[in-house]
Amino acid sequence: MSQPDHHSSTVTLDVDGTWRSLTVDNRMTLLDALRERLGVTAPKKGCDHGQCGSCTVLLDGRRVTTCLLLAVAADGAQITTAAGLEHDGHLHPVAQAFYDEDGFQCGYCTPGQICSAVGMLDEAKAGAPSFVTDDLELSPVLTDDEIRERMSGNLCRCAAYPNIVAAIGLASTQ
């Protein structure tokens, strides 16, 4: 591995349970570091502007769009992609719900949708309200409107939204 200079830095990331070190240009996004340097292809490059959500992963348990985050800002972080949600050969309950409810068509946005849904369900479980939450004093009830609002940063080019909402609704009850 080459030594960093004033234009690059060495970062260490826990990606799906494996610690990886690499030297990156200080301007490289986390998405490019994952895909181009580490060969992690679950997060997809869609818009490269943080507008579509196809690059969403969980960073220390919180959902982030990796196309907007510099790799150097993630140094030392735990990154979980949709591929890393599998446990002992079993799909994560959200991924299983996507399968059961046919929550995908072409599948391009699916890894980002699944990571975003996992993060969103954790946020709702922690009591974080959304724009459409009726009572800010109570834990939010994940109605279809709540799910749509909370997932609004994740676009599906195939418009599989009814099945995506159904999948997240199913996963929220498990």
What would you say this structure looks like, in words?
The structure is a single chain. The protein is an alpha+beta fold and 174 residues long. It contains five helices and five strands, in the order ββαβββαααα. It has helices at 30-37, 93-100, 110-125, 144-150, 161-172; strands at 8-15, 18-25, 56-59, 62-65, 78-80. Strands 2-1-5-3-4 form a five-stranded mixed β-sheet, with helices on both faces. Helix 2 (93-100) crosses helix 5.
Characteristic terms for this protein:
174 residues, five-stranded mixed sheet, 5 helices, 5 strands, globular
What's the β-strand tally? Answer: 5
Low-confidence stretches: none
Major sheet characteristics: 5 strands, mixed
**Distinct helical segment count:** 5
Helix content percent band: 25-40%
| Overall 3D shape | globular
Could you tell me the mean pLDDT?
94
Portion in beta strands: 15-25%
Strand order within the widest sheet? 2-1-5-3-4
Structural class: alpha+beta
Rg, please?
A: 17 Å
The run of helices and strands is: EEHEEEHHHH
User: Termini separation (Å)?
Assistant: 45 Å
Domain 2Fe-2S ferredoxin-type: 9-85
InterPro entries: 2Fe-2S-bd, 2Fe-2S-bd_dom_sf, 2Fe-2S_ferredoxin-like_sf, 2Fe-2S_ferredoxin-type, 2Fe2S_fd_BS, Aldehyde_Oxdr_Iron-Sulfur, Beta-grasp_dom_sf
Keywords: Iron, Metal-binding, Oxidoreductase
Organism: Mycolicibacterium setense
